[in-house]
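Researcher: Here's a chain I'd like modeled. Treat it as a single chain, no partners, no ligands.
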Amino acid sequence: MEEFGKINLLLRRFLLKRISALSRSKYSFFLTLFLLGGYSTNAQNFFLREDSLLTLLKTQYTSLSTNRILIVSELMSRHLPDEPLFDSLKNLLIQESEDSRDRNFICMSYSQIAKSYLNYYNRPDYYEKGKPYADKCLQVANESGLEGYKVSAYLLFARYYLNITQNQKALDYNNQAISLASAIGSDSLLCLSYSSISDTWNTLANKLSEFQALLNARNFAEKSKIHSLILQSLNELGNFYESVNDYEKAKDYYTLCENKAREWKESLYVFTSLQALGRTHINQKNEKLGILYYDKASRYGDSLGIGNLKLQIYLDLLNYYFNVSDPVKGFAYMNQHPELMEFIRKFGVEYQVNKLYAVLESTKNKYDSALYYLNLALPYEYGQKGNFSEKYNFADQLADVYKGMHKYPKEYKTLQLANKFADSSQNIYYQRDVMLNLDSVSLLLGNYKLSQQYLSQYDVYRDSIESLSKQKDLLSIEIQNANKRAEQQLKDEEEKRRTRNNIEYLGITAVIATIFIILVALGVFKMSPSIIRAIGFFAFIFLFEFIVLLLDDQIQIITHGEPWKVLAVKIFIISMLLPLHHWLEKKLTHYLTYKAHMIKSKIFNKKPVN
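Model: Modeled as a single isolated chain. Structure tokens:
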């Protein structure tokens, strides 16, 4: 019986390892996450080549203005902060804004510079360089009473603290931004504030609050009528549905975003929508269609002449090949696109490529070579400030190599380090997986008591994840209910509008009817023909303008709101109504000024029959 228990326990451990291995691909994504977030394109609407932007600065925007600041910011976004051109552009912006003594320009310049530093993934050195500019923006805004730029500074602080994993501080600054933006009454700032807090809720794994924030962001974007904010909100909702694996809903939002972006000529969101559609199809294991959309996005990036956009496609596909497809294909893809390695070197993360080589060597069971490449990356990985998720994944990868080499004591020591990183990252999936790995290696080392402790701890994390899975099901129901409430709210607002319009139409009809009754009454009594003609003139204007008003909604639907089509249809309608207007006005006026008096005379002069 005791032997049966041992066999049963070993069988259970084997099954748990297989389940964990199957689910790990969901999280091995972090192995090359630096490639996804390494470069951030500034969302300005200056889709011109760099030389064209520099020409604009030298010719059209020679003196300090909002557009000059935005163009310089766009140029900065196309260069890493370590590059000399970035530094010279930054100094130019500071010098010009400070010389102007215009507080709006000063705040705007410092805000844009801070944003240029904070919009990078896993670069703590950039974050520390960017924060003083956010501090300066807030200082000037406070001294000058510029409430809008105070909101901008709060949002920059929220991004800074989110980047360095101080999530509660990020949440506090987001809430301050929302509160101040509400007091100002700015729809655009409220949109940006809710968009920012959605990022924080996402990091805190509060999907329902994230979803509600994104809905609020979309509502305020539509109220602001700013095209770029509306498209941003659609894209973010697509990202949300993609994150909860509702890929069909995600594709709906990305397609809507693409169509609107083409209509409004917002080039950035055409590109990002095509890129997102490619990524979503890849996530659905539809490689052929995913690559097709990536090719569309790549060609579109070429048409804009901005190489950095195309680079993002390369990075996406490189992630796909190394995490989902085949590392050999990944290296072949890198060799076909040498600009990838150039970017990786410029960004200062060349050590990450050693991890990719380790993946390739491990698939060939060449663990000595894999260990060699991981040891090259090790000082850079463990020397990072924060970024515990990446540290955990590196330690986990290193432990797998030691396991393949049957060096179990080293595997155990490395997994203990991975456990510390998992705890620091507060990622329950990491904590679960490392407990199972520690259980297995402890068993191989013959420490059965410790193995059982790790297995018990694994059960705790597994139960917590199962509880989270149930919460995820509840979340799906809550999201569906929120969608239904939002749709019902739109229907209710449309019904209120229709009811209000019907009441107004009824009132206008009553007024026109009253005017004609008065007109007829004036005709029966002997009134001046000029008075009758004047009242008749205005009565028919009201009548025929009311007819055009009733047709207006249908005209908008038929013409899709295009001005020249609306004009053509209204000219056609008026060309038909105008002659009828004149003919009826003439006939009715003639009848009321002559015929009505004759009828009245016959009625009142008729003698009674004895």
